């Protein structure tokens, strides 16, 4: 079960970026790029055993130099948005980089999706794994403290792509890491994802204003277009007359995981009915951001594909957006001596 590595020159970023291929025979095959820690490809068999790449991406490392859609990338230091880029922490306001209007999004324009991650270890065997590391220096994108982050990708015997995060800091800071793959279970170039059937173990969602900032505590989704407690096609109600759908231009909302206690638990299941591919998402996080690629806008992807609006969906396991401004939300504060930990699994099967 070999782990293959290829290298490419990327002037201005580092001397080289590496692509590692993880493969379980008869199962998943993933290609991971050290630039941004991005999942470039993820091949998953359908009900007839035919593998297809189910994540949106670019053909080679050069495409990830300007990865504004965050395709496949590791996200940090804070996934999602912080209002006005103002980070209140221990009585001090730290001004973060603004890259989403006046707001701070996904760690800023120089966030973890743009940096060269270092390979800590590549492990062969029944569950091939790639361990990556990055040191985010004090003041990077405005954040206080030097943060040491490790992210481990593993292809498990169960048929999952698992991501394990750990992080430590030398000063109080905030941490909210996530993984930003866009999925299309019919194939990365297959077009609309609105026919995918989605179920969420989350009966509440966080209402937002038009800039994506929370305007209140989690709100009941029951009886609304945000109700996915039973499986529903993603597109069934996406154009309904609803203020929150207008604010998000469809679904771009964080859902609160029912019964969250920090343990690894199922939060979402997606089925593509034509191919029979099923993806179950488990996480230790209190929330999951559902985003349906509304702003992809026809970007040029791999193998000549054009990724139009709503041709990929994200299920980003994370803490709630703008948590530093909302003490009622689960805390994202990390202090020296503490260890941030997160695990998220994307488990694939067929029906």
Describe this structure in words.
It is a single chain. This protein has 351 residues and is mainly β. Helices cover 2% and strands 40% of the residues. The protein contains one helix and 29 strands. The chain has a nine-stranded antiparallel β-sheet, with no helix packed on it. Strands 1-2-3-4-5 form a five-stranded antiparallel β-sheet, with no helix packed on it. The longest helix has 6 residues, at 243-248. It is globular. It starts with a strand and ends with a strand. Mean pLDDT is 95; it is low at 11-15.
Quaternary assembly = single chain
Topology, number of strands = 29
> Going across the major beta sheet, what is the strand order?
11-12-13-14-29-23-22-17-20
Radius of gyration: 19 Å
Q: What percent of residues are in strands?
A: 35-45%
SSE run: EEEEEEEEEEEEEEEEEEEEHEEEEEEEEE
Distance between the termini: 26 Å
How many helix segments?
1
Mean pLDDT, all residues:
95
| Inertia-based shape | globular
Major beta sheet summary: 9 strands, antiparallel
The helix/strand class is mainly beta
Helical fraction equals under 10%
| Contiguous uncertain segments of 5+ residues | 11-15
């Amino acid at each position: 079960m070999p782990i293959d590595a290829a290298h490419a020159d990327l002037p201005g970023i580092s001397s080289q970026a590496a692509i590692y291929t993880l493969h379980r025979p008869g199962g998943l095959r993933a290609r991971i790029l050290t630039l941004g820690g991005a999942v470039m490809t993820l091949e998953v068999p359908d009900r007839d055993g035919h593998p297809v790449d189910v994540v949106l991406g670019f053909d080679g490392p050069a495409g990830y130099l300007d990865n504004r859609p965050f395709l496949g990338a590791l996200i940090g230091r804070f996934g999602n948005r912080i209002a006005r880029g103002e980070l209140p922490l221990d009585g001090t306001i730290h001004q973060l980089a603004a890259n989403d209007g006046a707001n701070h999004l996904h760690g800023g324009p120089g966030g973890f999706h743009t940096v060269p991650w270092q390979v800590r270890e590549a492990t062969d065997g029944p569950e091939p794994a790639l361990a990556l590391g990055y040191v985010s220096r004090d003041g990077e994108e405005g954040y206080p403290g030097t943060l040491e982050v490790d992210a481990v990708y593993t292809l498990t015997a169960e048929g999952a792509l698992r991501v394990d995060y750990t992080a430590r800091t030398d000063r109080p800071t905030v941490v909210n890491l996530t993984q930003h793959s866009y999925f299309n279970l019919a194939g990365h170039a297959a077009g609309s994802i609105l026919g995918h059937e989605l179920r969420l173990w989350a009966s509440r969602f966080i209402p937002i204003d038009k800039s994506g900032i929370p305007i209140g505590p989690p709100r009941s989704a029951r009886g609304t277009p945000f109700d996915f407690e039973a499986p529903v096609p993603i597109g069934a109600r996406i154009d309904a007359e609803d203020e929150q759908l207008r604010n998000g231009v469809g679904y771009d909302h964080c859902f609160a995981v029912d019964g969250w206690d920090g343990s690894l638990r199922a939060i979402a299941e997606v089925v593509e009915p034509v191919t029979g591919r099923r993806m179950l998402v488990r996480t230790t996080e209190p929330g999951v951001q559902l985003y349906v690629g509304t702003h992809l806008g026809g970007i040029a992807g791999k193998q000549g594909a054009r990724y139009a609006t709503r041709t990929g969906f994200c299920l980003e396991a994370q803490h709630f957006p703008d948590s530093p401004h909302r003490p009622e939300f689960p805390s994202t504060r990390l202090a020296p001596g503490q260890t941030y930990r997160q695990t998220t699994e994307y488990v694939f099967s067929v029906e």
